[in-house]
Amino acid sequence: MSNNKAKLPDNFMWGGSSVPCQIEGAYLEDGKGLAIEDCFGVGFAERFGPDIYLKDPKPDKFYPSHKAIDFYHRYEEDIALMKELGINSFRMGIAWTRFYPTGEEEEPNPKAFEYYDKVIDKLLEAGIEPIISIAGGIPMEIARKHKGFASRITIDLYVKFAKTLFEHYKGKITHWLTHGEYNVVSYMPQMSAGFELDRDNVDFQMLYQGIHNMAVAAAKVMNIAHEIDPNNKIGFGISARQVYPATCKPEDILECVLNKRENIWLFTDVLARGYYPEYTLNFFDELGVKLDITEDDKKEIAACHPDMIGITYYMTNLVKANEEGHAIGNFSWGLPNPYLKETGWGWPIDPLGLTSYLIELYDRYHLPIVIEEIGLGDKDVLIKDENGNYTVDDDYRIDYHRQHIETLKLAFKYGVDVMAYCIWTITDVASMSTGEMAKRYGLVYVDQDDYGNGTNNRYKKKSFEWFKKVIASNGEDLD
User: Fold this and answer.
1) Can you give 185-243 as a three-state secondary structure string?
2) Residue 239 has pLDDT above 90, yes or no
3) Which residues contact 388 (CB under 8 A, 6 or more apart)?
4) Which of 66, 287, 425, 433 could cross-link with 27 by S-S, CB 3.0 to 4.6 Å?
């Protein structure tokens, strides 16, 4: 395969990625308000089950976001590690509730500017370009009072937050994403849109109105970003999952096509093309959904011109007609693929799925693509090396990224324009899907267990030195 790959461009962005609730900690410090993620406990059921939604944290329970890995106080140390690694970009989530604790304040919290100014300046000093993800945790008050994006009120509150960032960081930050994983709302609405749904009796009207409102908010924010600074490059992000038919049976092929429409293209078409395609309107009619779409909504969406699309890539799905499948690794819905290996958490590892997805996405929209998250979550064991230093022998993580970078280069050979490969993550963080520190993604080990116990010290894994070499060679040295 090596003779069939293209070299990565000289301006390629090698980076890392973060989300506020998984990295910052200090969850109510300096005036920060309560976000919905601050009420997600350890374990999948404690994070996304109906028993926890909209309830205040209990004093006798541990909530990973409250401490996270304390980036809020240790950002200088972590950015020094990023500089040593050699990354030139960092997709960083900005916490909505640091600027607007309830989401409804007229003026932003000045302490938020103090904190993020210091972090962003430190990144820029290290030669690291921030790619800012704006939707960093819906304020709990917006979820309680307005059911998040199920209400049109939240569109204006989100736009106010985004405009605050554009005006303050004009001339300093030029790369933005409106939502990191916009389509996750379809199966984790409490996380992305701020409302809970009964999975056994889904209120499709509420679900798709919330999805529409998120699209309108994203369109408005992209239009405002371009108005405030024509140098801004802004797009939206989706959770990318290539979908395969279980067999070449025509019914399975059709199921695959329809699955992509419902879970991927429904979200991307409206923002990348500027209108709702006919198939989405037919889909809404079949569900009995009557969206509240105003003339202003249509104008904003039509005027929206994203500069890029962000994707998070972890796995692929297999579907079969008339068969529901099951939850893959607590994250996605499909059938097991007999041709793929899985992580310890049951996530299928599929490097070539990245190539085919990139080709399909680029051919559809011809927009540059930012891989804003990609990584392997697995159990790591901290050991001492021959020099007495703590490290992790994570050859499995090295192999994962080696294969995906190989297939990324293959995508370039097929004409795809990819701007960035942002690894998830530089340092270990608590998993969003399960709330476990044991499910480690980082190139740097953080000494903390699932319940916040440990020194919180950082130790470079074997993969850190390997990725450093990869970046220095712009993806050529993968040995």
Assistant:
1) HHCCHHHHCCCCCCCCCCCHHHHHHHHHHHHHHHHHHHHHHHHHCCCCEEEEEEEECCE
2) yes
3) none
4) 66
| Bridge partners, 333 (sequence order) | 327
Q: What is the arithmetic mean of pLDDT over 426-455? A: 94
How many CB atoms are closer than 10 A to CB 254? 12
What is the value of pTM for the model shown? 0.95
CA torsion sign for 50, 56, 57, 63 is positive
DSSP 104-155: --SS--HHHHHHHHHHHHHHHHTT-EEEEEEEE--BHHHHHHH-GGGSTHHH
The answer to whether 150 and 106 are in contact (CB under 8 A) is: no
Tell me the pLDDT of the chain averaged across its residues.
93
How many helices (DSSP H) and strands (DSSP E) are in the chain?
17, 16
| Residue 84 identity (one-letter amino acid) | E
- Determine the straight-line distance between the first and last CA of the chain, rounded to whole angstroms: 15
pLDDT for the residue numbered 187: 74
CA atoms within 13 A on the CB side of 176: 31
Question: What amino acid positions are annotated as catalytic residues?
Answer: 181, 373
- Three-class DSSP category at 18: strand
Mean pLDDT check: name the lowest of 100-109, 351-360, 382-391.
382-391
The continuous run of DSSP H or E covering 328 comes out as strand 326-328
Torsion of Cα atoms, 315 then 320 then 325 then 330, to 10° = 10
Task: Tell me the C-alpha distance between 266 and 344, whole Å.
Answer: 31
Helix (H) or strand (E) holding 258, with range, is: helix 250-260
